[in-house]
Write a structure and sequence with these properties.
Helix content: 25-40%
Distance between the termini: 6 Å
Structural class: alpha/beta
CATH class of the largest domain: Alpha Beta
Radius of gyration: 22 Å
Bound molecules: uridine-diphosphate-N-acetylglucosamine
Low-confidence stretches: none
């Protein structure tokens, strides 16, 4: 098993290009099930979760081909969803990636039946799928859970509804939005999540012929159509990957231009870090928007509090990385995790590196600045792993981040991109399992 070995203490300087958004690519891939025509998706990040979703689609009868783009960090997929007898997303694939549940809505909408493994537990806390299932039932689906599988079917077509999600959920919004595109009648979805990835999915669906109003807002109105068609679509840049590099510069200091990045998707993080002492400059370059992040090595950071909430508030997927930054800021920072109940597993590993912090239920209380000193740490989930890499860039001496298969699920070429801005980081084989 690979691990990352980092020699900390080097300021970061240069440019990093952000890949396409994993969390936009996954629902877009699932949406290709809605048509038998070819859909071509580009700017997909070359990460394990994308390959897993393509395998899920292949197991459902999709013909798929993947090409690596010139950058080496992005993929283009050509997909033709022909379907098969079983229409079953098996446990072996679903257990490695919860987002596989996103195939349920489109399968039901197109073929009127589906068998999808229940995703099960997750390192960052309970992640039920009740909101997805309740909404599909309201659209006429019969749902049974047997032997760990969701078995769903509908007589005829899914029916439109006026539905208010009980809780804001990214995945449930995506699943039901996609299903509603082929439903009978006009569906109104209220209290939808408004993460930028949902806007990207909606734009793909419109290119495929869907009728959707309210894109970008919390109320989506979808008029079902008889069939959808193929198209080409490039997914948006990954705001969480960009935010991770922003946090790396904030923590380790330096001056980095982040290319192909959309600053408007990062406002909550930028606002906090600006008030903490980090400088930002926005520009437009040949590859779209750019964000320059600068923190002089002599510039002290001030602590800031953060609470994770749905977009446009501070994202839970940047909480761990922000915590590492706060270990370097003067004062007390209270970080409140408002989305998932068990998302502080990086905290204990940060303590091993020398951070001064305490967990109190949903809050982490970080006192800084703390000098960090390198040691071996264990990655526990995708974003926790990124937080530990950032800590390794700050720490004196050598930090080894073990179990980086978590990182490989969501970051394309992380160590290569960081090497490009001067970080001393390398991947070696043979870490502990
Ligand atoms: C997505 C993102 C993930 C991010 C999360 C929150 C993808 C592939 N993953 O996950 O990176 O951390 O949004 O921004 O896009 N909930 C229920 N019942 C449900 C569904 C969700 O109670 O049926 C709860 C969850 O337990 C959680 C909250 O709602 O507390 C938000 O979860 P949700 O927005 O659904 O997250 P995901 O779509 O799984």
């Amino acid at each position: 098993m690979d691990r990352l070995v980092i020699q900390g203490g080097t300021p970061l300087k240069g440019r990093i290009r952000v890949s396409g958004a994993k969390n936009a690519a996954l629902p877009c891939l699932a949406a290709t099930l809605l048509t038998d025509s070819e859909v071509r998706l580009s700017n997909l990040p070359a990460v394990a979760d994308i390959r897993t979703m393509v395998k899920v689609l292949q197991s459902l009868g999709t013909e798929a081909s993947l090409e690596t783009e010139a950058s080496g960090f992005e993929l283009t997929a050509s997909l033709k969803a022909l379907g098969n007898e079983e229409l079953k997303a098996p446990y072996d694939l679903v257990k490695t990636m919860r987002a596989s549940i996103l195939v349920l809505g489109p399968l039901l909408a197109r073929w009127g039946r589906a068998i999808v493994s229940l995703p099960g537990g997750c390192a960052i806390g309970a992640r039920p799928v009740n909101l997805h299932l309740e909404a599909l039932e309201r659209m006429g689906a019969q749902i049974e859970i047997t032997h760990g599988y969701i078995e769903a079917s509908v007589k005829g077509k899914l029916q439109a509804m006026d539905h208010t999600f009980e809780k804001v959920s990214v995945g449930a919004t995506e699943n039901i939005l996609t299903a509603a595109c082929l439903a009978e009648g006009t569906t109104i979805l209220r209290n939808c999540a408004i993460e930028p990835e949902i806007g990207d999915l909606a734009r793909l669906l419109v290119k495929m012929g869907a009728q959707i109003e309210g894109i970008g807002s919390s109320t989506l109105t979808i008029t079902g159509v008889a069939q959808l068609h193929g198209c080409s679509h490039a997914v948006i840049p990954d705001r969480i990957e960009a935010g991770t590099y922003v946090c790396a510069v904030a923590a380790a200091c330096g001056d980095v231009v982040i290319d192909a990045c959309e600053p408007d998707h990062l406002r909550a993080l930028m606002d906090l870090l600006e008030r903490s002492g980090v400088e930002f400059t926005e520009a437009t370059g040949p590859e779209g928007r750019q964000l320059r992040v600068k923190r002089d090595c002599g510039q002290k950071l001030r602590s800031k509090d953060a609470t994770t909430v749905p977009h446009p508030g501070f994202p839970t997927d940047l909480q761990a990385q922000f915590m590492t930054v706060m270990t370097q800021a003067a004062g007390i920072s209270v970080i409140n995790e408002g989305i998932f109940e068990n998302r502080f597993q990086h905290a204990m590993e940060l303590e091993r590196l020398g951070a001064n912090l305490r967990i109190d239920d949903h809050k982490a209380i970080v006192a800084g600045p703390s000098p960090l000193s390198g040691c071996t740490v264990m990655a526990t989930d995708l974003r926790a792993s990124a937080a530990l890499v950032i800590a390794g860039l700050v720490a004196s001496g050598e930090t080894v981040v073990d179990r980086i298969y978590h990182l490989d699920r969501g970051y394309a070429g992380l160590e290569t991109k960081l090497q490009g801005v001067g970080a001393r980081i390398e991947r070696v084989g043979g870490g502990r399992v």
